[in-house]
Amino acid sequence: MEYRKLGRTGLDVSRLCLGCMTYGESARGNHAWTLDEASSRPLILKALDAGINFLDTANVYSDGTSEEFVGRVLKDYGQRDRIVLATKVHGRMHVGPNGMGLSRKAIMAEIDHSLRRLGTDYVDLYQIHRWDPTTPIEETMEALHDVVKAGKARYIGASSMYAWQFAKAQHVAERHGWTRFVSMQNHYNLLYREEEREMMPLCQDMGVAVIPWSPLARGRLTRAWDEATERTRTDAFGKTLYKVPDADRRVVEAVATVAERRGVPKAQVALAWMLSKPFVTAPIIGASKPDHLDDAVAALSLQLSTEEIAALEEHYVPHAVAGH
Ligand SMILES: NC(=O)c1ccc[n+]([C@@H]2O[C@H](COP(=O)([O-])OP(=O)(O)OC[C@H]3O[C@@H](n4cnc5c(N)ncnc54)[C@H](OP(=O)(O)O)[C@@H]3O)[C@@H](O)[C@H]2O)c1
């Protein structure tokens, strides 16, 4: 396994982050395709055995059960200080007023709920899952700073939003002497590269780590365009993301061509492309089978040529902003 500093922090993270949205009770929350605890556990342990020290989950994943699964595996694994544990806040956790968002009340309640479900007294990275247009950013940044100062989170990060919003949040934190975000978890893959316009250069300029979500476009980059799995059939959010079928299909075919020439699975090519980008610290991979982890690890040693990278990128056309 390779390790990188998370942005300008001193924190070492593996170059692959394990996305734990795949793990949780399918009857709870919005992801009907998730794996139950018995099927999730060996995958999380396999990732840890491969040297992946960086795990990402969220309060909202499968209504808190993703955090519970991860917490129980880590308790049995027993090496909490070796793990970089990331979770998120913003999604709806209960009906009615104050059931979601980034108010001081929501953040203070949700960090404690996450810590209880994760069975730990701190997370390494506490991320805002989205921008909350209904709460002043000053209120959010001060609450996050207080979470850090209370010892409940080591660092804070953000997820999908416009670059101007991220820049504003950092500016507010700096003006008040509050904790700044050290990472951006955004939507980025060969089918969705809009982040190259503003967010990636902004993060490079600020020394913020980029940890993209859905690096394989939720599986679309790993198989023929028309092939579906249980997940693609039931993944309601995924259906909102990739909306330019003609161009997207050509990109998927280009991945297949490079993969065939190399004699490796498509997933390795798509991840190797992402790892070739200097602004990417660690893609957050989804693994529903053991060989998904093997491919992700193998991608770390696959060096693509300039010509191969150009071939993978040439069919891309601008996409409407998706995933905010
Ligand atoms: N911040 C956010 O808003 C946000 C949004 C989305 C995700 N995330 C984070 O990002 C993580 C990853 O998201 P994701 O699961 O969508 O990532 P992904 O890596 O793009 O997709 C994972 C899916 O691709 C397929 N796959 C993976 N490796 C494969 C291989 N080697 N061969 C064939 N198929 C393969 C599997 O699909 P099948 O299961 O269908 O076979 C797997 O479920 C999540 O767990 C979560 O932590 C964050």
TrEMBL record:
Q: Which InterPro entries match?
A: AKR (IPR020471), AKR_Detox_Biosynth (IPR050523), NAD(P)_OxRdtase_dom_sf (IPR036812), NADP_OxRdtase_dom (IPR023210)
What domain of life?
Bacteria
Annotated CDD domains: AKR_EcYajO-like
- SUPFAM superfamilies documented for this protein: NAD(P)-linked oxidoreductase
Write down the Gene3D superfamilies for this protein, in alphabetical order.
NADP-dependent oxidoreductase domain
Q: Name one GO molecular function term.
A: oxidoreductase activity
Query: One Pfam annotation, family name?
Result: Aldo_ket_red
All copies of the NADP-dependent oxidoreductase domain together span 16-316
Give the UniProt keywords, A-Z: Oxidoreductase
Q: Name one GO cellular component term.
A: cytosol
- What PANTHER family would the database entry show? NAD(P)-LINKED OXIDOREDUCTASE SUPERFAMILY PROTEIN, NADH-SPECIFIC METHYLGLYOXAL REDUCTASE-RELATED
Q: What is this protein called?
A: NADP-dependent aryl-alcohol dehydrogenase
Source species, please?
A: Dyella thiooxydans
